[in-house]
Amino acid sequence: MSKKKSNSSGIVYSTDPDFRLEEDSIPEETLLPKQQRLKVRLDTKHRSGKAVTLVEGFSGPVDDLEDLGRKLKTHCGTGGSVKDGQIIIQGDQRDKITQWLLKNGYASTKRL
Q: What confidence tens digit (pLDDT) does each residue in 90-101 have?
């Protein structure tokens, strides 16, 4: 017997009529800044009492989300990351982030 694996994806049969492999998916387009509905909020849960600012609601590919996160971190002068469709900025930066978003064309931002 050969130990070589075949090039198949390992899926034999699916009963889901809407099933698609990732190769078949259409790339998501980024909405214009005026069409984005972003929420800026403060969060301390599961962070040992440390405050972080979350930016949620971005519609677009992960690369564009990471680019926006990089710009916000640079503007605030703090660290952070992009995880699970959220931009996480260290500290209470709600005012700075909201002002930057409004200045750069994100018209509908909610500050929670």
A: 999 999 999 999
